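Q: For a teaching handout, I want to show students what a protein-ligand complex looks like in token form. Below are the inputs, and the small molecule is uracil. Please produce the holo structure.
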Amino acid sequence: MRVTVLDHPLVAHKLSVLRDKSTPSPVFRQLVEELVTLLAYEATREVRVEPITIQTPVAETQGVGLSRPRPLVVPILRAGLGMLEGMTRLIPTAEVGFLGMARDDTTLDIITYAERLPEDLTGRQVYVLDPMLATGGTLREAIKFLYRRGAEQITCVCLLAAPEGIAKLEEELGDAEVNLVLAAIDERLDENAYIVPGLGDAGDRLYGVV
Ligand code: URA
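A: Here is the structure, written as tokens, with uracil included.
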């Protein structure tokens, strides 16, 4: 797994406002979108393109177009949905699929409660959106699910990660071709599996408590 943490003053600034518990939901949502657009720039560094010929008003020249099959963006419900707009702003022709995953509070297993994805992902580049990489359980299951469908290269875009979650993914995914693009790696997880210092519950801060 390749881990990239964006080192940029605007990323650090936007993340600081997100962390602030007094930041209201509408501002939080807007900042998540902006931050994801910055992360998307790095996350799509290896997006496949192919040469095309174009005609400028002055002359014919060579350019590039996005290759087919188109990249697939997969927000993990619920909180990953808040990242979708920021990602598709940069790559508007991407296809979008959805995965709903949650932890069963009794067994602690990750259950997939919703899925809207192409059956066959052979050869696809997939961008998974999940703001908080805490224990790593959800991302691990999402990555395995996408590989089982045939995905070729998976890039996970997260706002924050705990070292414990990164270590778990590294241990369990072995040599799988997974990129992880982050705004920051925080100190640790607390006893409730919240990232410390973190930003709280990303889903609640985006959408309110339901
Ligand atoms: N999910 C969140 O929303 N926040 C955390 O700190 C950990 C997991």
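A: Two things your students might notice: Residues 2-207 form a domain with the Rossmann fold fold (CATH 3.40.50.2020). The mean pLDDT is 95.
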